[in-house]
Amino acid sequence: MSVFYLNENEISFPDPSLADKNGLLAIGGDLSVKRLLLAYTHGIFPWYTEGEPILWWCPKERWVIYPEDIHLSHSMRKYFKKHETRIVLNRDFADTIHRCRTKREEKDGTWITDEMEQAYLELHKAGFAVSVESYIDDKRAGGLYGVCIGKCFFGESMYTDIENGSKVALILLSLLLAKKGFGMIDCQLHTDHLESMGAVMISRQEYQNIIDGYCRG
């Protein structure tokens, strides 16, 4: 299959169904707010490492959490009863995304480049990127950030400073989004951790149907 190269001066993408077997759809373009919004509303997201051109992905199978189906294990239920927990939205988006970046750099390396940080900060300023921070017994414990369009939340990355910090952030965010009638939290790719918290695999078409109904509908 041919690789699609994007023009920086034209905000468009090829048909998502043309992605290769690994989910790679296109290369190049830019990370402007307009292009990122177009990408997310068609099930496309950027993911690449420093020194590479921008790579755009649209996997054939997607992992999502339906907010009302977030799974609380027996141990987490006990944890919530034992500790005071809360989340804060958009306390400091720039700080949250940078914490996600540095935590990943310390462990496995990261795709959150300088360019990505700046792009999502601009997306936040435009009102579409959101940070979520968890507090456990009044101590900042962890957080996550993502893109919020309509009633779809596209998760990007998480960090933990205190044990269970990112879990608390995701669980409380899910409960909040369920109350607000959100259709999904997009997990993009599979991890055992997310599956244990209720993430399920759906087809690209099922995923697009959710976007059409909750994001662009």
Structure overview:
The structure is a single chain. This protein has 217 residues and is α+β, with helices and mostly antiparallel strands. The chain folds into 2 domains: 4-59, 2-Layer Sandwich (Alpha-Beta Plaits), CATH 3.30.70.3550; 63-215, Leucyl/phenylalanyl-tRNA-protein transferase, C-terminal domain (Aminopeptidase, 3-Layer(aba) Sandwich), CATH 3.40.630.70. The chain contains 7 helices and 11 strands. The chain has helices at 33-40, 74-82, 93-107, 114-125, 165-179, 192-196, 204-215, and strands at 4-6, 24-28, 45-46, 55-57, 61-65, 85-89, 129-136, 139-149, 152-160, 184-188, 200-203.
Give the ordered list of helices and strands: EEHEEEHEHHEEEHEHEH
- The radius of gyration is 17 Å
Strand order of the largest sheet: 6-7-8-9-10-5-11
CATH H-level homologous superfamily name of the largest domain:
Leucyl/phenylalanyl-tRNA-protein transferase, C-terminal domain
The parts where pLDDT drops under 50 for at least 5 residues are none
**Content of β-strand:** 25-35%
End-to-end Cα distance: 32 Å
Summed up, the domain count is: 2
Mean pLDDT: 93
